[in-house]
Every structure is written in C-alpha cells, then in structure tokens.
Write a structure and sequence with these properties.
The complex is a heterodimer of chains A (about 210) and B (about 425). Chain A is α/β, with parallel strands linked by helices and about 210 residues long. Chain A contains 6 helices and 9 strands. In chain A, helix 1 (about 40-50) packs across helix 6. Helix content of chain B is about 35%, strand content about 20%. The chains are: A alpha/beta (about 210), B alpha/beta (about 425).
Chain lengths: ~210, ~425
C-alpha cells in the first residue's frame, strides 16, 4: 500500500505525479481524499467543510461547462452556479487551454499551463476544478500542488484525478447539487463560511465588466 | 497502491456507448468487452498470427488503418486491406513511408477514429518520432509491432531489439507470446488504451515470423460481435475540430518560451503521460488476469521472459525437470506498464533469475536488474539475435553452466 498522501503543497520544485507514487483512482461510487479511497458520500461532507473553512474558496469551471455544447453542460453550469452561490465561492473560468503567459489576467482567469499564477494572485486556498478536460486538469493540479498551498478538489466527469487533493468521479449535475446540499447541511449544523467578502466579477465578450 | 486491485465480475467498467447492442453496417452487434471475452463461448480456429491480426481487426470496430509494406507485417496489413474491401473499415490506404503512416494515423485519431496500424523493424525506427507525439497528444492509436532485426546488413528475421527503442515513448507496450495472446491483446488493448484516465497509444508487440507466420489454435468469439465504437468525447484533451486544431497548441508560446513556466509545463506534461501508463495497470490487471503469469515461483531458479522466449523457457523447464533441476517461470505480459512490484514479489525467493531474450542488448534483463533487490541474481541470457532461434537446449545449457553442472558435449561441438 502506498504511503504517499496527496496533500496541499508547496510540495517540490517538480512534484511527482500521484499515479507514479502508487495512488489509484476511485471506482464508481467512491472518491479519494488525499489519496485515500473513501465512499463518495464521505467526500461530499469533507469537500463541503473544506470549502466552508477557506478564506478564498474558488471554483474553476472549464470549457466543458462554460459552453452549452449539449443540454447536460447547461445543467451542470446551473448547478455550479448554485453551488458557488451557496458557499459562497468565486468563479474563475478556465475558458481554454492556450498558454497566456505573460499576459494572463490572473484575477479573472486561470490557465492549465501556469495555474499557480492565478492561485498566488488571488490567494486561493481551496479550489475546485469542474468541466476541465482531464489531461489539462492533471497538468494544472500537479503544478498547483508543486508550488502553492491551495487544497484542490476535482469534480471530474470521467475517472477522477489522483493529482487533486480530493476527487470525485462520474460528475453529473445531480452530484454537484449533492455537494451543495452537503454545504447547506454543514451550515445548518453551525459551520460558517470563512470566505473573505468578495464581489463575483462579470465578463462580457470584450472582457471584464467592472 | 492506495487500494487493492481486485478482479470484479465485470473486468472493466461496461461501455455506455449509445450504439451498444445495435448492429453496424456489416451486421455485427456492438458488444461490451466483458461479454465478448468472459461470457460468450469461443470456438477454436487454426490460423497464422497475421490472420489473427486480421480477425481481431475485423471485430475491433476500427475506423482507419494505414498500411506500408515491411516484412513481416506486410501480410497482416494486406489482410486488413481485404477487410476494408469487404466494408469492415471506414478508411484504409497506403502511406508514403512508415513516418508518413504514423502521421496519418495521428490525423485520423485526432479526428476521432479508432486507428490501427502495423509496423516492424526499420519501419518502427523510421516512424519513431511519431510515437512520443502520439502519446503527448493523448491519441489511443494501436500499432502492432511484429518485431524483426533493425541492423545493417539487412535482416528481416525475428529480433526484439526494436522494443528497446520504444520503452520511453510514452506508449503502452504489451508483448504477446502466442497468436492467442496477440488476438486478445489487440482487442483488450483498444479498451485499456481508450479509457479516459489512460488514453495513450499502445504497441501490441509480437515476435515476427515466430508468431506472425506460424499457425496456432486460437479461441475466437463469434465474429458477428464487435467492440463498441471509440468515443472521442471521453478523450482527456479536446477533440480536434476547426475551433480547436492541434496546431493551435503547438504554435502557442509555452513550447517556444525559455522560462521556468514553459519548462515546468513540459515536465508536467511528460509526467502526465507516464501517469497515464501507471493508471492503465488497474484496467490491465482486470482484463489480462494480471501483468504477469507465474509458475512454480517457490523455486530457487526462475526464468523471467516475454514473448516467444516464454515458450522456449517452458520447454527448457521441462527438459531441466527431467534432470531433476526445478525451475520456475515468470511470463511478462506488459512491458509498459512494467510489472515491477509483481516481479519483485515473484522472484523474492529466487537465488538465480535467468532472462532469455531474442536480442543482444538484453533490455529486459536491464529492466529487471533495475527493480529487484540483490540484482546480482539476474543473469542476462541466453541471448540470440538476427533471426536465430533459441533452442530450449541452449537455455538448459546456460543454466547448467551457471550452476557449475557439467554440460554434455553435443554432436555439433564434436
């Protein structure tokens, strides 16, 4: 059994991929928490409390949920918005994967090739990837683990991400809503959001709407 | 691993492709791999390895195959052409060279097709630049490598040296011992390579001529069944279309910049490809019943081999048994991922580990030496190359000589 744990960094100049350290992805109905396989239900509560305890909780929606390329994408986007409102959490999009360094506006966008810039700039301490293609998500998650202290959560529509500090798999709009339910339940139990007050920014086709 | 990989009833998560259970234009029913391999009754057929490749491709729902002649894969490539003529493939054509073939395969895979090709020897080396490109682009193309000599003067005969060159390309590498292995590996290889958490190319390798041009009994499922189609929407990278051509990634700055962020991205990208190989373990263990097969590994002498060297080792073990020398066997099925934990466990009691190979480099022995404790136990050999056969008696002599047992002079030496 691997002793490796997928913890928030900063881990190393070039951290290993978690898979190379023996971390195996969860099977359907499971999630992983810091590399430990756990029932999915346990993951919802863990993620909800992790989010609520963060000062700058942030959701990074990727192209698979930013564009309405099918009806399910639209439902997922609606669920993500509801989750962001319930927490509350910032929404910072990963609109595509083209590197934007050095011109990236780290306040309002993230890029898989240099995600650490956005994490550092906004002082993000807990984040969730959703709707990002798996390869790009793994790149970003490992780079974040290497150079930042951000705890990463992956809400993956496929098999999950061992390079995230915790990961769900087979994500659907319903699963995102279950995470929102877990947030609301934790709040009912007295857990308060530690998020620093912020105003959700709005983007138009021409850029940031102040 | 953080979890024991057991073997559930369904060896791999069942396909949910919308076409499952429907028929293709050839009247074949799209069928889940669990059903095709573990539920449906198989019938014996007597055929060559090349014919086995044709038979596997016939039921693999392959979209595109690109061919270029090079012995000993030419026959298989031609037989796939027959399948195209019959209507089983959507695209089939001859490339201008092996390098072109692999580039054309990439184009078809970028476009969302399941892609199969074959190559051998110098063709593999000529095409080499494309293999890490396939892996880096996360293209689950399958190339069947019918291994032969790559040296000058020209040899078309069996030699497994080319596998050495493929080790770090980022491809999965499965090494078939028999025609049965080859059939199973081709079909199961598509399924593992196309898993969304894996999604990298796979080289299904066999020893040229020994497997491709000899007949063997192969158990086949009915050919009115076929694999579910490839689903490009499960790809870990965006599908190629006019909005997202692959060149867009290549022309953008991170490949051009000389700075830490650029290098870090490249390094992470390479790590991710190797991580994908690691992720394939779970699926492969389920589908192949483990990455290795073992026989009598409680013995002090163990042979570890892959490909047809396993078959020769089996016979050598039988001959040694007749003389009272007991030897165990480890058959390696996957070279990438390399079954390091399995081999360490299987050889932990062995005092001598022999690695017979059909090449002079001894790449398999090097791989094993790199992972087992007390690696002075590993004896690289015997080796043959350039098309030589490896008589079981040669393995027997090698082991007996090493053990200090007098080897009877054979007629040829007298």
């Amino acid at each position: 059994m691997s002793q490796y744990q997928v913890k928030a960094g900063p881990e190393a100049f070039l951290p290993p991929s978690a898979a190379s350290m023996g971390i195996v992805l969860p099977d359907p109905g499971e999630c992983h928490i810091e590399g430990r396989i756990a029932p999915e239900e346990e993951g919802y509560e863990f993620a909800a409390r992790k989010f609520l305890g963060a000062k700058v909780p942030t959701i990074f929606p990727g192209p698979l949920v930013l564009w309405k390329w099918n009806e399910n994408a639209a439902k997922k986007a609606t669920a993500i918005r509801a989750l962001a409102n319930a927490l509350p959490a910032r929404l910072i999009p990963m609109a595509d994967y083209r590197p934007k360094y050095p011109k990236i506006d780290a306040e309002v966008e993230i890029n898989p090739n240099h995600p650490n810039l956005t994490i550092w700039h906004n002082k993000i301490d807990v984040c969730m990837f959703v709707g990002v293609h798996c390869h790009q998500a793994n790149l970003a998650l490992k780079i974040i683990r290497g150079g930042t202290n951000c705890f990463t959560i992956a809400m993956c529509a496929q098999a999950g991400h061992e390079d995230a500090c915790m990961s769900f798999r087979d994500a659907t709009p319903e699963k995102i809503m279950k995470l929102m339910d877990a947030v609301n339940k934790a709040k009912e139990q007295g857990v308060k959001s530690q998020a620093i007050p912020f105003k959700q920014f709005i983007m138009s086709r021409t850029g940031l709407v102040s | 691993m953080n979890k024991t990989v057991d073997r559930p009833k369904d060896r791999i998560i069942r396909s949910q492709h919308v076409k499952l259970g429907t028929k293709n234009k050839m009247g074949q029913t799209y069928t889940d791999i669990n059903t095709m391999f573990f539920e449906v009754e198989r019938e014996p057929s007597f055929m060559t390895g090349s014919e086995v490749i044709r038979q596997a491709v016939k039921v693999a729902s392959v979209g595109t195959s690109v061919a270029y002649p090079i012995t000993p894969q030419s026959e298989a490539a031609a037989l796939i052409g027959e399948l195209y003529a019959e209507g089983y493939l959507e695209e089939y054509f001859r490339g201008e060279s092996e390098f072109a073939v692999m580039g054309q395969c990439a184009g078809a895979a970028f476009g969302g097709h399941r892609v199969f090709t074959t190559t051998a020897g110098p063709g593999t080396l000529r095409a080499m630049e494309n293999f890490p490109m396939w892996a880096g682009s996360r293209l689950p193309i399958q190339v069947c490598v019918t291994m032969r000599g790559v040296n000058s003067p020209l040899s078309i005969q069996p030699d497994t040296l080319e596998a050495h060159y493929l080790l770090e390309t980022g491809m999965l590498m499965w090494h078939a011992e028999t025609a049965q292995d080859l059939y199973d590996f081709i079909l199961k290889g598509f399924i593992v390579a196309e898993q969304p958490d894996v999604h990298i190319p796979i080289a299904t390798m066999c020893d040229g001529f020994f497997v491709t041009h000899t007949k063997d009994t192969v158990m086949l499922p009915p050919d009115d069944l076929c694999l579910p189609p490839y689903d490009p929407y499960k790809s870990p990278v965006p599908c190629m279309d006019m909005e997202c051509p692959p060149v867009r990634m290549m022309r953008d700055p991170f490949v051009m910049k000389s700075n830490y962020i650029s290098y870090s991205t490249h390094a992470s990208w390479q790590q991710e490809i190797r991580a994908a190989i690691e992720r394939s373990r779970k699926h492969t263990i389920h589908l192949l019943d483990g990455l290795i097969d073992v026989h009598n590994i409680d013995r002090e002498i163990i042979m570890v081999a892959s490909g047809t060297a396993v078959s020769q080792s089996r016979e050598a073990i039988r001959l040694l048994e007749e003389e009272g020398i007991k030897v165990g066997l480890v058959k390696i099925k996957t070279i990438r991922p390399f079954p390091h934990e399995e081999i360490k466990e299987a050889t932990k009691r062995a005092k001598h580990i022999f690695v017979p190979e059909f090449n002079l480099a001894g790449w398999l022995a090097r791989e094993i030496k790199a992972i087992v404790p007390n690696n002075e136990r590993v004896i690289a050999g015997p080796h043959v190359a350039g098309g030589m056969t490896m008589p079981s008696e040669v393995i027997v002599e090698e082991i007996k000589k090493y053990l200090g047992i007098e080897v009877a002079s054979s007629d040829r030496r007298n």
